[in-house]
Amino acid sequence: MRYARTALALIGFVSAIFFPPYVAGFCIVILAACWSSWEAVLLGFFIDMLWLSPHGAFHGLPLFTLGAIILAWLFVPIRMQLLPK
Amino acid sequence: MANVSYYRSPQSNRRGPQRLFFATILVVVLVCANYITHGSVASAVRAVVAPLETGITRAGETIGGSGFFASKSGLEAQVRDLQAQVNDLQTRSAAFSVLQQQYDSLAQLEHLAQTNPGRAAPITSSVISSPYGTFSIGSGNTDGTQPGAIVLASGDFVVGKVVQAGSDSALVQQIFAPGIQTNVTIDGIAGIASGQGGDARVDLPHGATVAVGDPVIAPELKAHPIGLVARVDTNPANAQTIVYVSFPVSLSSLQFVYVTP
After folding, report:
1. Less CB within 10 Å around the terminal CB: N or C of chain A?
2. ipTM of the predicted structure?
3. Domain that holds residue A24
4. How confident is the model at residue B5 (pLDDT cuts 50, 70, 90)?
C-alpha cells in the first residue's frame, strides 16, 4: 500500500506538469480518500504554484490547494470510522 | 498469499493526521508568503520545474529520434508537418480577413502602420496542463518582460497577457481562459468576450449582423484581434445574439510567441 501511495503521488506530480489537470485532480482525490495524505496537500499546492494566475477566475484563489486540504481533512474521520481498529 | 492487514496501530493512526496537519500549516504559510511577495514562491517553483520539463521533453525527443520508435516517430513527423501546413494556411487566411477589415477603416489603417516593439519567446510548458488557462514562456525580467505585456501569435492574434514574471520565465494568462473577460468589437459592435477555456462567448444585441470568420478585435489590447467568429447563435427565442469566438490556430502547435509591452 505504501508503494501505491508513493506511485500515485509521483504520477500526480508528473501529470501536474505534462498532462491535463484532471489527472492530477484524480490523484489528489484517491490519495486523500485512501490515506491521511500530506502528499495530496502538497500536490494541490504544487499545481497552484505552477499554474495559478493572480488575475484568473475567482480572483486568483488557489482552488487546488484549498480543494486538496478540504478533501484530505474531510476523509480523515470517515476513514477512521470505516477502517477496522 | 501475502498477509495483508488493514490493522493500524494507534501510533500510526496518530502519525498520519499529524503529518497532514504540518503539511497543511506549511502550505498555508507558503500560499500566504506567495501572496505577500507577489508570486515569488510560484516563480521559484516554476524556475525549478522549467529545466526539468525541458530536459524530459528533450530526452523524449532523443529517444524518439534514435529510431527506437522509428515507425511511430515517422508518422508523428508527417502529422506534425501536415498540421504545421494546415496551421500556416489557417493563419494566413485569418490574417488576410483581418487585414481586409482593417483596410476598410482609416483608424485600423493607423494600427496597421504601427510596429510592435518586443521579442520572440519560446513556450516552455504544456498548454493543456494548466487548470487556470495559463502557460509559461522562456522570457523574464532579464529580457524586459513585465506583467501586463501582450503575448501575440503569428498573424498578430493575441494569445494572452503576462501576469507574473520571474527572472528567466513568465506566466501567461490566456485570453480564452475560464472567467477572463475582454472588451471586444465585432464588425464595429462592442461586446464582452468571456473566456470559456478554448474559446470565448460574446453576447451582442439581438439582430447584430455578424458572420462566421469575422475577426474579433480587442481595443484594450492595442486593437489586436483575439480570434475569429466560429459560430453565431441567432435563436429568436434568445434576447441576444450569442457569438462564439475561437483562436485560428491550435495553441498546442505553437512553439514561439511574440511578447510586446
Report:
1. C
2. 0.85
3. 2-82
4. very low
Which of B22, B31, B130 faces A45 most closely, judged by CB atoms? B31
Query: Cβ distance B194 to B176 under 8 Å?
Result: no
For B166, residues 6+ apart whose C-beta sits below 8 A from its C-beta are B43, B44, B46, B47, B140, B141
Q: Does B45 touch chain A (CB under 8 A)?
A: yes
The residue among A19, A42, A46, A50 with the most chain B CBs within 10 A of its CB, best to mutate, is A50
Cα–chain center distance at B75: 27
The DSSP code sequence of chain A is -HHHHHHHHHHHHHHHHHS-HHHHHHHHHHHHHHS--HHHHHHHHHHHHHH--TTSGGGG--HHHHHHHHHHHHHHHHHHHHS--
Per CATH, the homologous superfamily of domain B39-261 is Rod shape-determining protein MreC, domain 1 (2.40.10.340)
Residue to test with chain B: of A34, A49, A75, most B Cβ within 10 A: A49
| Total number of domains in chain A | 1
Q: Please, which residues have CB within 8 angstroms of residue B1's CB and are 6 or more apart in sequence?
A: none
* DSSP state letter for B187: T
Quick check: B27 and A42 CB within 8 A? yes
Which residue ranges make up each domain of chain B?
39-261
